[in-house]
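Sequence in, structure out. Go.
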Amino acid sequence: MSLVDYFDQLAEIALGWLGWTEEQALASDVNAIVVAYGGRTDMLRWIFGSSEDEDNPAPAPQTTAEKKAPQTVTPTLFKALFGHKISEG
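Output:
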């Protein structure tokens, strides 16, 4: 897949599947679009099911006791995940 095709596909996902505006899509990096798309498709599978449900059931929502402790998002972690700088103030 060429870079042009790849970025066209990302634009289709951001503008179509995710319903983002062009400004939001252009302000987001590739990781944000890919993660948001994965979350959206997981959500839709959980709500509506899929033909693969018999083999791969959607995970049940976690209870409070099952949830992991939240990870502190440091400026370094944020930059690694999203490629943007945040102010440290």
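Check: The radius of gyration is 16 Å. The chain has four helices and no strands.
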